Each structure stands twice: as structure tokens, then as C-alpha cells.
Amino acid sequence: MSAPLRIGTRSSALALWQAEHVGALLGSGGPVELVHIKTTGDLQTEVPLWQAGGRAFFTKEIDRALLSGAVDVAVHSLKDLATELEPGIALAAALTRADPRDALLSRDGLTLAQLPRGARIGTSSLRRRAFLARARPDLEHLELRGNVPTRVARLRRGDYDAIILAAAGLARLGLAGAITEYLPPGQFPPAVSQGIIGVCARRDDAATLRRLGVLDDRDAHLAAAAERALLKRLEGGCQVPLGALAAVSAGELRLSATVCTLDGRRHVTAQGAAPATPQEATALGARLAAELLGLGAGELIAGERARLQEPPR
């Protein structure tokens, strides 16, 4: 009997669902074993994500295990994966994209427009805070950490009046029924690669790369490539109040992106299209990033970073 394919994953309910889903998709190609790995994000649960310093908060330890040979495959929410992969690691597959939208869950079943002034909204994302301030500047923002079921439980016990989570994660865990309202991407553009599961392997592991390649969804991979190229040009290693969404239709890849200040008062938007090929996808993301920078996105981002680094008064 052949040795099992070892899949490295976090131990949260959503991460395990994603790893098990990848294992099920691989079917009868051979045995699969899940290897649970704790990441910095799992251990530092009190640190706001925007203070984590980089985009490898939930992935670094899994990638190290992959490079050391402790596991053969790494499964990530692609939005958690740094735009610059570790040397020696390849994105072998981007799975078919689930619903990329954000979702509002409110304790009393009220939509975003119906929430009263001063309602307490939980989110750990600078992006969500920025677009929430743009839509409802009268609401109070509270930090929200923990895995998806924990966040939903904290809402239900009254810690918040509403919270914002990714619709895809809720659906994967059977919690879509808790959603009060799906937030429109035009008003709340999603995180880069939101809704896509990324599957990585070592670049020199040709057999595993071939096995995983059959899982790759071309349209999802192209959309992710455009969005990640955009973010790579803008982020500089930190969280950015940026929302972006790309999609393929009739052989054309369309991408839109918005950078917004945390108070919601200023934003810049760009959109464009290109033929749906890997080279054009990356070029489209870089081109829209340059357009956003030309519109002043760099100054908006620099200003927000400076404000976040100011000591509390």
C-alpha cells in the first residue's frame, strides 16, 4: 500500500472542512492523512489581525512543514496566503470559487440599513471596517477574533449587535441560515481571493503537483492571479483597506478594486478587463494597481498605516 498523502491544515472547523474537501476531491488516487498544525494566528487569539504584521499569520507554520517534508500538501483559505509564496512552494490548485461576498449576521435579524445608530459591529478586518464606515459611519466597530463558530456564538450571546463574516465560510460550515443579509460587492468589495481554497505543494514534487493539478479551476485561478497581482503591488507586507473582485465571462477577465480610508470618507476605484489568460491576468492586476496609485491610493494607504501606528491617547 502506498504512503498516504499528508495534508497540512489548521485545526479550526473551517480549515478542517477545507482539508477534508480537498482529500475527498482527490478520490481514489490513494490514501490521505490530515496533519494538524498550529499557526501564529491560532496561538495569538487576542492580537487584532491588522496588528499581525504581514499576511502569513495563518500560513507560515504550515508552509514550513511543507518545505521540511513533514507534509506533502498545504491547504489554505487563499485570502490568507501571502502574495509572495515561500521559495520552493507552488500554488498547485485554486478550487472553484464559492460565494465571494461578505455577509452580515445580526442578533435581531436587522439588515445593515435597519441597524440603529451606535449598534456594535464585530469584525477583525481593516477592509470591512473601512467599507462599513463608508456605508454606516454611525456604527461602533469592535474587534472580533476566534474561529467562525466562536464568532457566531459571541454574536448570539450578545457581545455584538451584528458581525460581518465571509459568506463562503459560513456556507461550508452549514451556518448560511444565520446570515441576515449578503452585502453587495459594489458596496462591500470582498477580500482578495475570498471564497477560494488554495492548495500548495513543493515545486520539486512533480508527482504531487500532477495529482493536485486536476483540482485546479482555471477561472478561479485566473481571478485569484489578477487580484493577488493587484494586492502585491499595493500592500507592502501589511493589511490594506482594499476590496477587489475578478471574474471570467466569455473569455474575458474583468477586475474591479477599491481602496478606502478607515473612516470611509475617501476612496479610489479602478476597473478593467483583459483576455482570460495567466499572463494577462497578472498584467491586469498590476495595471489596475498602478491606476489606483495614480489616483492617490498610495497616500491613502500610507495615511492609514501612520494612524494605526499612533500610540493610543
Show the helix and strand layout.
Layout: E1 5-9, H1 13-26, E2 32-36, H2 40-43, H3 60-68, E3 73-77, E4 89-94, E5 102-106, E6 120-122, H4 126-135, E7 140-142, H5 148-156, E8 162-166, H6 167-172, E9 181-182, E10 197-202, H7 206-213, H8 218-235, E11 242-249, E12 252-260, E13 267-275, H9 278-294, H10 297-309
Kindly describe this structure:
- This protein has 313 residues and is of the alpha/beta class.
- The protein folds into 3 domains: 1-95 and 196-216, Periplasmic binding protein-like II (D-Maltodextrin-Binding Protein, domain 2, 3-Layer(aba) Sandwich); 102-182, D-Maltodextrin-Binding Protein, domain 2, CATH 3.40.190; 218-313, Double Stranded RNA Binding Domain (2-Layer Sandwich), CATH 3.30.160.
- It has 10 helices and 13 strands.
- It has helices at 13-26, 40-43, 60-68, 126-135, 148-156, 167-172, 206-213, 218-235, 278-294, 297-309, and strands at 5-9, 32-36, 73-77, 89-94, 102-106, 120-122, 140-142, 162-166, 181-182, 197-202, 242-249, 252-260, 267-275.
- A 5-stranded mixed beta sheet has the order 2-1-3-10-4, with helices on both faces. Strands 7-6-8-5-9 form a 5-stranded mixed beta sheet. Strands 11-12-13 form a 3-stranded antiparallel beta sheet.
- Strand 11 (242-249) and strand 12 form a beta hairpin.
- Helix 8 runs parallel beside helix 9.
- The longest helix has 18 residues, at 218-235.
- The mean pLDDT is 91.
